[in-house]
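Lecture notes, unit on protein representations.

Consider one protein chain, 436 amino acids long.
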Amino acid sequence: MVMVLLCGTQLLLLLDFSIVNLALPDMRHALGFSTSGVQWVASAYAVTFGGFLLLGGRMVDLLGGRRLLVVGLVVFGAASLAGGCAPVPVVLVAMRAVQGIGAALIAPAVLALLTMAFPEGSQRNRMIGWFVAASASGFGLGALLGGVLTEGFGWRAVLLVNVPLVAVAVIVALRVLVAPQRRVRRPGAEVLGAVLGIVGLILVIYGFTVLESGVKALSAVGLVGLGCGCVGVFLAVDRRLRRPLLPLRVLRLRNVAAANVIGLFGNGVFGATTSLLSLELQDSSGLTPLVAGLCFVPFGVAVAVSATTTPRLVARYGAKRVLVSGAIVMAAGTAFLSQANAWAALMSGVVVVAVGGGAVYTSVTITGTEGVPDEHQGFVSGLLNMTTQVGTALCVAVLVTLAGQDTSGTAFGVATAVLAAVAALAAVAVRSHRWS
């Protein structure tokens, strides 16, 4: 029952991500957004989600995964209800930002609870495979459900549908999750310093987001640079505290550090590819939201099959080989997409990318949580989610900008080069293990 709860909650997060994107045109017409302004319905969520992930992960370690999961679900559900009833654009954007904060508490709590529920090895790896499969199913289902709800009931339904789902998740969480037995450490003054880190991460993701929307590159780079400076100051100060907030010593574990770098670019390209495909299907091909959503169903199925198969491959061949192979398969898919013109060819490339992406995402999660003590699983879970989120924002900004200036072929070509570098990095940096 615990895995059903955790996978169901992860499915809900990814469902919400894709379901809202397909409703953006209806939101723009209904509330009077400008063409550029409506993008902030998606961007506000992404910015706060990425900005609060690291703190959310650490709070899981300090306060317990059960507590953070329930609090995050309540925040997420309340914001969904308020956003679904929003009378004006600013309220909708604000509630999407609050949704992002709730999601930043939920995501690391779910992964940390999973890794602590199962001992390191083949059993945990299988559960991680199902966890990634749930993510893919949520994305594919959200794309389909977003089209159905938007065309059948209007844009408000894509937010209000979260409310009963969250209510069920909260009830189940309170019933099946056990409160932590170890003494909970109350965060002290060190949390105040985290505000600087949060501001820095928000500025970094915001900088990439405004670059995508067409703001001058110099302004965007300035925001990213300022954000990196804030994060750097926070880390320098935190290291000198008697009780630092972030246990950065876990990054001395080679596979944890390597997994986050690979996740930054590998998972980042994977996430950005879905955004490019959405633009290609709706803008270039002129498909309706429902038809575009149907096109993502094979993508979700392929990722789910790949993710549930990957743990067996890791057990037999080791994480390094699976990571390298997955990145190469993804690169082959994006190379194919860079030359694809016909709709059937485009969908074939999508499936290839999905198969490779499922293997990479699952292997990164297995590798990035390997050898980490339970008391730090929240931190590494938040870190893995954060690097994926920052990587996606970076890759979306670069690839969508390239697609706007030239063609999506150029963008997919750059993605291919990045994935080739990811494969090379995985071959050099990851230490391979086999689990029995």
